[in-house]
Amino acid sequence: MKRYLPLIVILLFPFVSAQENLYEYDSLDIDIDVNSGFELIATGGNARVEEVSTTIYLFPEESSRQQVLSLNSDGKKQNGQLLFEWNNPAIGTHSFGYSAKIKTNHQRMEVRQKIPFPLSPQQVSEFEKYLEPTATIDSNNPAVIAKAAELVEGEDDLFKAVFNLANWVDNNVEYDLTTLNAETAQKASWVLQNKNGVCDEMTSLFVAMTRAVGIPARFVSGVSYTTSNLFSEPWQPHGWAEVYFPEIGWVSFDIAFGEYGYIDVTHVKMRDGFDPVDPATRYEWLAHNVELKTSKLEIKTEISQTGNILAEELELEQEILASEIDIGSYNMVKGIIKNKADYYAATTLRLAVPAEVEIVGKNKRTILLAPNEVKETIWIIKVSDDLNKDYVYTFPALIWSEKNVSVEDSFIAQTGKTSYSKEEIEEFNIEVEDKTYSRKVSFRCDLPPEIRMGERADVACTIKNIGNTNVENLNFCIENVCERIDLPINQEHTGKITVEGKIVGWNKIMVTAENSLIQKSISLQYMVSDEPKITFSPEYPQSIVYGADFSLNMNLHKESFANPQKVVLKVDSFAGESSWEMEELAKDQSIVLEMSSKKMSRKNTFEIEVVWEDKEGKKYAEKREIVIKVIPASFGERVRMWMNAVVNLFT
Questions:
Q1: Alpha helices in 5-152 (DSSP H)
Q2: Is residue 428 pLDDT above 80, yes or no?
């Protein structure tokens, strides 16, 4: 009987819903209804109202990424606002609002080259008002100034400086939809201290930091689409930021969405200003003995038409350190990201793995790439210790971006394969984002899959430059044997080491190459085998009463790392010879014989032999005898047992 380990292939379900594809379109036609109202309440005799006016400040304006296709309202449009007026209105309820059809386009203010930082006074001339502190955006707070200065210290690229501020807020301020945050706009300094808030708070802190280091920024209000389960409706009021880039214009940064340098087409801009607490509506009235009670501004949003799917400007590749590991082992997944665009682009990456695999540390990676730049990032993962040791598992690992660009690979987890500790993996967990050339070198290694204890074997690994840049001063290592080499375009270099079979089981060899452009590593596995060995321990009763049934348990124990091959178990007894065969003994096995004592004599000998081979055909054997006594309960049973002894002797 040949034993196969059951194979378990773990699949990932789709990691986004179909609705989230709204983020991928190049345009959307969006229907927006904005409505509110007020009630005029008489508070005394001779109540009268001469006039009421209301201004809605949340109103979509035309821009390069946003067109107002139609507008239906009784209000007067002026200076990006809608004004509603009532002369001699009656006591009671009044309503106002507008409906509009908006087309949003995926247009961004593209930053194609480095803009020096810090900005000069001439560069921010006429934008000084966007550097001033406000009630909520207290950019003059000492703690805000200190943290912002720390994050941009030594940076001479404006986009990178702004990215550093945005990414810090994203990674350190927790989105917290509590009553405190949802109903009251907190100061930027409060957010910095408490490390929580909603989109308004996160944006306020970001804007305060940019202003603190001399970069003009403003707060933007509007609506956007979300798939978060924190909200009962997908379309919600939302706040984000715009940062001024000299010679470019106002560049969008949405911290809550992780969109740096752009916003997706679900964002509808309705207002920009200095402070998020600026009112959405304003009321003025002239009346006698009348109270005006306002209602909340309600915004309803629906999609009427979608455009085309965007062409992604990023390319993703993936490498997994070890293709086969032990159950409970750590592993490493590397993501390689290339910006195909001729402008700065930031992307947020996440790793999707099955529930049986743990991601160590933060999953989210937000990475900024200059035009046509390549960067790398890594995740450390761990396979659960609680998996069934009798199965072979295939685990997928999928890297995906906020716009659902993805790349997938897989690895195998199986008992007995090489195990990596967290410390071993962390040796390769260096800052790899600036190692832009790693995918332009390849490894090819030759080593025997198995060697015997005490034997030696040669391992040869060849590294080749498959890119278009000469590689210099490359530290190329096979385990602890390292050499400094230069690798011109299309050239290769081979290194060799000799390994000795010292530790039985799966052994690993790390192959690495590193310089200022490259950090590449792979793990090789080979097995050190010993002589296959089986011991057996029969379980049986020392004596039984004549006529009773009993069990003889044959327990085969695999004592070696190597699996014994062509295993044969033979049992020679009064009942004749019985045998069981199996192609391979991969783990301990028990064979149970159900027997009757009716053909047994007073003293019965069982001869047991186990025979097996190694992979080269060398034979091994172990023999053992056991004796089981039978006790008669009557004279007649003694006679039958004597007759059984005679029969067994001749047969």
A1: 142-152
A2: no
User: Regarding the domain delimited by 534-650, which CATH topology (the fold level of the hierarchy) does it fall under?
Assistant: Immunoglobulin-like (2.60.40)
- What is the mean pLDDT of the segment spanning 627-632? 92
Phi, psi angles (nearest 5°) of residue 647: -60, -45
Give residue 331's identity as a one-letter amino acid code.
N
**Cβ atoms of residues 145 and 211 within 8 Å:** no
Please say whether the beta carbons of 622 and 609 come within 8 A: yes
At the topology level, CATH places domain 26-106+280-306 in: Immunoglobulin-like (2.60.40)
Token reading at 331? 């592993």
- Tell me how crowded residue 591 is: count the other CB atoms within 10 A of its CB: 16
pLDDT tens profile 477-487: 999 899 999 99
> Is 466's pLDDT higher than 60?
yes
Say whether domain 128-252 belongs to CATH 3.10.620.30: yes
Instruction: Look at residues 33, 31, 29 and name the one whose alpha carbon lies nearest to residue 73.
Output: 33
Cα separation, 207 vs 213, in Å, equals 10
Asked if 519 contacts 376 with a C-beta cutoff of 8 angstroms, the reply is yes
How far is CA 506 from each of CA 287, 479, 499, 584, rounded to the nearest angstrom? 89, 15, 13, 19
Give yes or no for a contact between 460 and 445, defined as CB atoms under 8 angstroms apart: yes
433-462 tens-digit pLDDT = 556 667 788 899 998 888 999 899 999 999
pLDDT tens string 563-575: 999 999 999 887 7
Tens of pLDDT, residues 325-353: 999 999 999 898 889 999 999 998 999 99
242 CB-contact burial (10 Å; exposed 0-12 / middle 13-18 / buried 19+): buried
The amino acid sitting at 51 is E
Helix, strand, coil shares, percent, the chain, to 5: 15, 50, 35
Q: List alpha helices for 329-397, DSSP H.
A: none
Cα separation, 636 vs 57, in Å, equals 112
What is the rounded CA–CA span in Å between residue 314 and residue 374? 10
What are the CA-CA distances from residue 53 to residues 56, 94, 192, 428 (Å)? 10, 11, 39, 66
pLDDT band at 16 (very low <50, low <70, confident <90, very high): very low
